[in-house]
Write a structure and sequence with these properties.
The protein is α+β, with helices and mostly antiparallel strands. The protein contains 26 helices and 32 strands. The longest helix is centred in the N-terminal third of the chain and has 48 residues.
Length: 932
């Protein structure tokens, strides 16, 4: 054993030494590769050296030429520059020229700029020490008027110098400008280029050496580093390896003759002993197989029949890497045929499951998801498919109770049946009996396979007549699979096969269960979404107006349509204000879901609270902007703020006054309104649009004032009405204009026409539409008086008010009206400022002649607001507003640009005079004798 180990180690060392010698010998001087390598290096060295010398000489020549050209150009420019002639003719040429010499030298990069007189004395020099010296140089030609460039050694050393004469306007030469550049500077520029040239030469040498090495390495790779002994050994083992493999190998030349066939190929093809050197077509092979072997084309695992064997044939062409021909390999796949059939069926079912995953659950609708499951099952697996779900699943509710207690299902989807099918129809309630396959599948949570329906007594016992009808229809096999998701049974899917299809088998169960499992998850997701969507819709509806308030200024109609994809934040409002005015509000919170709906409710509540304070429209939107900014600061984290996840909302707020027909409107990022005039024309008034709420950063909101003719229609809307995926904003506005243009219509008819014209099949955003027809209070409904600031003026105004109420047929409210009006006027006279104006308004809603309200307004120039309080027994006053609050329906104060208005409203529904008993002393305390 030791001797054998020593011999093995020795043979290994000899083999490694032989390989190293072969590798080194390839680059030795005695080898062809080594000689070629040295010759290439020598040629490259010569070429690099010659190129380097030529480049250096050329660089020196170019730099000297550049120096001559630059010095001449600088000298000519300086000699012909404005002011040089005047400076040389001045009393002190040096003082005039010297400041410009150094500046020119620095700007142009020359060594010096020198100005000489015709006597050779230096008048200006970049070196001030040279001024005044007489120089001797080749300047005679320049003094005669001929510029020149030459190289000579001067005070700066060997230099390239250009001299140019300075001519006076009469053509005479009055001086010489000389500009030198030293040869040393020129040489320095050449020296700076040498590293680049040397680096290029070194790179060329490296590339040449690398190329030579690659050539040598390729030569070694082509011979595989083998010597004669190794090549002999390789050919000795060639036949053994070729004939030992389990695949048939054929080598065919370009003329279609067989050059070589191993033993496996002879066995598979039953080749004769003298097959080599014969034509492929003469070997008795199958025609299609012989055609492939003789053809000039490659092939990969093509299956051909050879006698009783199924062969997988692969063919590769040897050209252009070798002589024309091909190499063919043969594999016997007869035994793999059955296995490949099973694998193909498995692949098809996996593909079917993948396709089903793409087609099932495309929407978050329970019914549509059930239909998608049935449709996929029919196209891939069964002749008929039915889906039965629990009613709570269809409603989006949670499921309670054990599966064994479920006795009713609702047919939700059917696919694969004709019009006269015998099965339960969609939406039909199915009552189950124990032992039925569907009941067992749900109770036990497993699939139930019924291969032959005619032999299943439990299935036939539920409805014998229907069962016989089903069998006569050709349906013979059934597979029931429960739909389970997150441990809860949602229903069942039943697969049916009819006449012409084989019965279900056990291998079909796994596919059916996998298909049902994927669909169950989608159905449960849709159920949960339905529940959350229902809750969000309920929240949204609770936050929106349920009915329009009663008011007399506008005839209003509205439409609200939620988006198909979720609950949004659109809202609208009609808010009655004091003095018969009405506020119209339309807003939109960006986004969908519960957060958008909740934010909408907060903003709507805020608008109501701000509106009852009788704020101007621009101030109300400013306060709303501050509220949205505060919501962002309190609820949005810094990370969400950086990602832009802030509350976004738009709003449009308008106040209409029927006494004047004036419309005050302000917009924060919202589309402007449409105005339909009585003649049917449509305008989109141009308004100043402020940034959306929360983004104004404290900037003031701009408002606009419009005068609206009586009978006009104001149309306020959200962007979901005019924008969708198929049209842009401009197209939407034009479509809205077309829908509104035309004969006069009621607000309700206008809403219907607009929704019919503008609504898409599946709106992607909420739509809020508000249409209001304007009314005006006629002169017979308004009474107004100017009141001097004198207590004696209260009585005449009270008398005039009583007279007007009598004209209106309101004698029953005269006493209360006089009481209220007297208190309001007395407060204005005592505590207000002029001018004092009293206005009496009589409102009367359409369709109700006896209904309406009486509104008292007392305006004065003071901004001090009265405060309601309960007067003490010892107080002399303080009971006036208490009386107003007691007998008026409501009262309040609104501020104007010139002061304030104190108003009170008295309802005329069942109006009657209050009992006067007990009021005498109280009224006498409030009114003086003059007023009475």
């Amino acid at each position: 054993m030791p001797d054998a180990s020593v011999r093995t180690r020795r043979r290994g060392r000899r083999r490694r030494a032989g390989e190293a010698w072969r590798s080194d010998s390839l680059l030795s001087l005695h080898s062809l590769a080594g000689q070629v390598f040295l010759l290439q290096l020598a040629v490259v060295l010569l070429l690099v050296a010659a190129t380097l010398v030529a480049l250096v000489v050329q660089a020196q020549r170019d730099v000297m030429a550049d120096a001559r050209h630059r010095t001449l150009t600088v000298a000519q420019t300086f000699a012909n520059s404005p002011g040089v002639v005047a400076a040389l003719k001045s009393a002190n040429p040096t003082a005039a020229v010297q400041p410009h010499v150094e500046a020119v030298r620095k700007a142009t990069g020359v060594d010096a700029v020198i100005v000489y007189g015709l006597n050779g004395v230096t008048l200006a020099h970049s070196d001030p020490r040279q001024v005044g010296r007489r120089v001797i140089g080749p300047y005679a030609a320049a003094a005669t008027g001929q510029p020149f460039t030459s190289t000579f050694k001067g005070s700066l050393g060997l230099s390239v110098v250009s001299a140019v004469p300075v001519r006076s306007p009469d053509g005479s030469v009055i001086g010489v400008v000389s500009v030198p550049v030293t040869v040393e500077r020129v040489q320095h520029r050449v020296d700076r280029q040498l590293p680049v040239l040397l680096a290029g030469a070194a790179a060329a040498l490296v590339l040449a050496a690398g190329g030579s090495a690659l050539v040598s390495r390729r030569l070694r790779r082509q011979t595989h580093g083998l010597g004669a002994t190794e090549m002999t050994r390789m050919y000795e083992h060639h036949d053994a390896v070729l004939h030992a493999v389990r695949e048939g190998v054929l080598i065919i030349d370009g003329d279609g003759r067989l050059l070589l066939a191993n033993d496996e190929a002879r066995r598979l093809l039953a080749l004769p002993a003298d097959a080599e050197r014969r034509q492929i077509t003469d070997l008795g092979l199958e025609e299609d197989l012989a055609g492939l072997l003789a053809a000039d084309r490659p092939a990969t695992d093509e299956v051909y029949l050879a006698a009783d064997r199924l062969l997988a044939v692969s063919k590769r062409l040897t050209a252009p890497h070798g002589p024309a021909g091909s190499v063919v390999t043969l594999r016997d796949t007869t035994e793999l045929l059955a296995v490949s059939g099973l694998a193909e069926r498995a692949r098809q079912r996996l593909q079917s499951l993948y396709d089903a995953g793409l087609r099932i659950g495309t929407t978050l609708d329970v019914k549509r998801t059930a239909e998608e499951l049935a449709e996929v099952a029919v196209t891939r697996f069964a002749d008929i498919a039915t889906v039965d779900l629990l009613d709570p699943v269809l409603r989006g509710e949670e499921i309670s109770g054990a599966p064994a207690e479920i006795t009713e299902l609702r047919r939700s989807a059917v696919a694969g049946l004709d019009a006269g099918h015998p099965l339960h129809s969609v939406r039909e309630l199915i009552r189950l009996v124990p032992a039925h396959p569907v009941f067992l599948a749900m109770a036990e949570g497993r699939s139930i396979l019924v291969g032959d329906l005619s032999a299943c007594d439990a299935w036939r016992s539920q409805q014998p007549a229907d069962a016989r009808w089903i069998l006569d229809h050709g349906i013979h096999s059934m597979l029931v699979v429960p739909l389970r998701a997150r441990g809860v049974v949602l229903g069942v899917v039943t697969y049916w096969r009819a006449r012409g299809s084989p019965s279900f088998e056990e291998e079909d169960v796994s596919f059916a269960e996998e298909l049902a499992a994927r669909a169950a998850v989608c159905i449960d997701n849709a159920r949960r979404y339905t529940r959350e969507h229902t809750m969000a819709v309920a929240l949204q509806h609770s936050l929106l107006p349920r009915a329009l308030p009663e008011q007399s200024a506008l005839d209003v109609a509205y439409r609200y349509l939620p988006a198909q994809a979720g609950v949004g934040g659109d809202w609208f409002d009609v808010i009655p204000l004091s003095g018969t005015r009405v506020a119209l509000v339309v807003g939109d919170v960006v986004g969908h879901g519960l957060h958008a709906a909740a934010t909408m409710g907060r903003l709507r509540t805020a608008v109501h609270n701000f509106a009852v304070l009788d704020m101007p429209v621009e101030e109300l939107l400013g306060r709303l902007d501050e509220l949205v900014a505060q919501i962002d600061s309190e609820e949005i984290t810094p990370a969400e703020y950086e990602q832009g996840l802030v509350t976004g909302a738009t709003c449009q707020y308008a106040v209409y006054d029927p006494t004047s027909g004036r419309l005050d409107i302000a917009t924060a990022g919202h589309p402007g309104p449409a105005l339909v005039r009585p003649d049917g024309t449509v305008d989109f008034p141009r308004l100043s649009v402020s940034p959306p709420l929360g983004l104004a950063a404290g900037l003031p909101v701009e408002a606009a004032q419009l005068t609206v003719p009586e009978g006009s229609r104001l149309v306020l809307y959200t962007d979901g009405l005019i924008e969708d995926r198929t049209r842009d904003l401009d197209a939407g506005l034009e479509a809205l204009r077309d829908a509104l243009t035309g004969p006069d219509r009621t607000p309700e008819a206008t809403c219907a026409a607009v929704m019919e014209a503008m609504l898409s099949d599946r709106p992607w955003d909420d739509i809020a539409l508000l249409v209001a027809r304007t009314r005006r209070l006629g002169p017979d409904q308004v009474a107004e008086w100017e009141v001097p600031r004198d207590p004696a003026a209260v009585g005449p105004v009270r008398t005039a008010c009583a007279r007007r109420l009598t004209e209106w047929g309101l004698e029953q409210v005269v006493f209360t009206a006089e009481l209220i009006l007297s208190e309001l006027i007395t407060n204005a006279v005592r505590y207000g400022a002029e001018p004092i104006t009293v206005r009496l308004l009589r409102t009367q809603p359409a369709g109700s002649p006896d209904a309406g309200a009486l509104i008292f307004e007392v305006a004065d120039g003071s901004s001090t607001s009265p405060r309601l309080r309960r007067a003490k027994v010892t107080d002399e006053g303080g009971r006036g507003l208490f009386l107003v609050a007691r007998f008026a329906e409501r009262w309040g104060t609104r501020y104007t640009t010139t002061g304030k208005v104190i108003w009170a409203e008295q309802s005329l529904h069942h109006a009657a005079a209050p009992e006067a008993e007990g009021l005498g002393e109280l009224l006498l305390d409030q009114w003086d004798d003059t007023a009475m």
